Amino acid sequence: MFPPFTLRYAHLPARFYESFKPVPVPDPRLVAFNKPLAEALGFDLVNFDAEEAAVWFSGNVVPQGAEPLAQAYAGHQFGGFVPRLGDGRAVLLGEVTGRDGKLRDIQLKGAGRTPFSRGGDGRAPLGPVLREYLVSEAMHAMGIPSTRALAAVTTGERVVRGLPEPGAILTRVASSHIRVGTFQYFAARGDIEGVRELAEHVIERHYPELDAGQEGERYLSLLEAVMARQAALIAKWMGVGFIHGVMNTDNTAVSGETIDFGPCAFMEQYEPQTVFSSIDEGGRYAYANQPRIAQWNLARLAETLLPLIDDDADEAVAQATELLQRFPERYEAEWLAVMRAKLGLEQALPEDEALIEALLTAMQRGHADFTLTFRRLADVAVSAEAKAGLVALFERPEEMSAWLADWEERLDKESCTAGERAKRMRQANPAFIPRNHRVQQAITAAMEENDYSLFETLLEVVTHPFDDQPGREEYSRPAEPSEQVFRTFCGT
Ligand code: AMP
Ligand code: MG
């Protein structure tokens, strides 16, 4: 069933990981399987059998050629450094080469206690597994770099998180699971050779274009390349109202993919200070803080690379600082590109930023739903009648009407037809996101009634975010007051 493994991480020095076999579970059952992804990865599905698949995706049997391991990493959690975190409940089986020729990790999350588990049980509850499945696949469908979900199994065991819940294992696919915290792990031990080997591995895997170049320059270029991908990624998050919730350095992948969907959530009413995570008491990871936090995390990556950038410590700091200071500018450019696309603007004009800010201000003051505002704006691009539906989202409709007049004036400077514009705007403004209350309903039905139909429908809806999907309009609507989710949990 599995394609052949190409072991890469397992061939890095032994101190990069702990070899570890998944701990068997009593009664594995396949509850979700991503067939298109499996096909793209080269899985053989000819004699696909769900019972057999459950055995593989629970880790009860290790596929031939895999050398399971738990990766070592450190990380800053809410600003405080923890020198040894590592995969406490995840096992990397190995890497496979997809039909696109790219290498990807296959990891089982929830596979049992590893040498990095500390006080944890090494397991995952079903709720967070289904949440990660839905949200990571929705992100991918929206064109946002993300780890993917290949399969989910229940284990037949209960895990205790306050109350006992069904246990589950998620099979996660990533272009790698290397984090800023992986670099920190070696740097914290003064293991400069470890940092260098990791950097070389990352360049080969994610940034092969940096292959040439002199020593110091090469690692500075790596920092710059990671920075560019983070800037692009966070701008995309901001463009769909995504709040990661735990942007710790151990949850920041150097590949530029979104990783570790814990208490993540999508904002409904536009409010920049929105926080959902129950553990984020200070609002460190609020929606509006995400770009700044990304820069902070990149500074932590930079620190680990300093000895490789220049033998002269002051010189290394000067070069890295100069680079990091360009992050806001870089991010701003990415964000403007995202927002211009959302507003249907092809040309870049200096007045655009003020126009975008004015819309956001109107949305905040009018408590308008983030997703619906932009989607309806795409409707307005072709039909003046759609205006009523858009301004109705605002508690101060007159403010939005005034903004629309400014927007229309700005559109006069564009050359494309209204029809083309609307088409492009619909590809930049999803109609469907995994709304928190829908995710919650799907999880509750699966957990309490063993009913996966809501999960399956929601998955279908959110993996076609830009289509209208007649009959599924309900899924585009924000939560009613009684349905609202105010707090989300890590689920660990
Ligand atoms: P997370 O909050 O999921 O990003 O995890 C932070 C750290 O805690 C990582 O080192 C995880 O491997 C570890 N961890 C999270 N949940 C568990 C668990 N149930 N058992 C053992 N380790 C865990
Ligand atoms: Mg994590």
Automatic annotation (TrEMBL):
<keyword id="KW-0460">Magnesium</keyword>
<keyword id="KW-0548">Nucleotidyltransferase</keyword>
<keyword id="KW-0479">Metal-binding</keyword>
<feature type="binding site">
    <location>
        <position position="121"/>
    </location>
    <ligand>
        <name>ATP</name>
    </ligand>
</feature>
<feature type="binding site">
    <location>
        <position position="89"/>
    </location>
    <ligand>
        <name>ATP</name>
    </ligand>
</feature>
<feature type="binding site">
    <location>
        <position position="86"/>
    </location>
    <ligand>
        <name>ATP</name>
    </ligand>
</feature>
<feature type="binding site">
    <location>
        <position position="109"/>
    </location>
    <ligand>
        <name>ATP</name>
    </ligand>
</feature>
<feature type="binding site">
    <location>
        <position position="251"/>
    </location>
    <ligand>
        <name>Mg(2+)</name>
    </ligand>
</feature>
<comment type="function">
    <text>Nucleotidyltransferase involved in the post-translational modification of proteins. It can catalyze the addition of adenosine monophosphate (AMP) or uridine monophosphate (UMP) to a protein, resulting in modifications known as AMPylation and UMPylation.</text>
</comment>
<dbReference type="GO" id="GO:0070733">
    <property type="term" value="F:AMPylase activity"/>
</dbReference>
<dbReference type="GO" id="GO:0000287">
    <property type="term" value="F:magnesium ion binding"/>
</dbReference>
<feature type="binding site">
    <location>
        <position position="260"/>
    </location>
    <ligand>
        <name>ATP</name>
    </ligand>
</feature>
<feature type="binding site">
    <location>
        <position position="122"/>
    </location>
    <ligand>
        <name>ATP</name>
    </ligand>
</feature>
<feature type="binding site">
    <location>
        <position position="179"/>
    </location>
    <ligand>
        <name>ATP</name>
    </ligand>
</feature>
<feature type="binding site">
    <location>
        <position position="260"/>
    </location>
    <ligand>
        <name>Mg(2+)</name>
    </ligand>
</feature>
<keyword id="KW-0808">Transferase</keyword>
<feature type="active site" description="Proton acceptor">
    <location>
        <position position="250"/>
    </location>
</feature>
<dbReference type="GO" id="GO:0030145">
    <property type="term" value="F:manganese ion binding"/>
</dbReference>
<protein>
    <recommendedName>
        <fullName>Protein nucleotidyltransferase YdiU</fullName>
        <ecNumber>2.7.7.-</ecNumber>
        <ecNumber>2.7.7.108</ecNumber>
    </recommendedName>
</protein>
<feature type="binding site">
    <location>
        <position position="172"/>
    </location>
    <ligand>
        <name>ATP</name>
    </ligand>
</feature>
<dbReference type="InterPro" id="IPR003846">
    <property type="entry name" value="SelO"/>
</dbReference>
<keyword id="KW-0547">Nucleotide-binding</keyword>
<feature type="binding site">
    <location>
        <position position="88"/>
    </location>
    <ligand>
        <name>ATP</name>
    </ligand>
</feature>
<keyword id="KW-0464">Manganese</keyword>
<comment type="similarity">
    <text>Belongs to the SELO family.</text>
</comment>
<dbReference type="GO" id="GO:0005524">
    <property type="term" value="F:ATP binding"/>
</dbReference>
<dbReference type="Pfam" id="PF02696">
    <property type="entry name" value="SelO"/>
</dbReference>
<keyword id="KW-0067">ATP-binding</keyword>
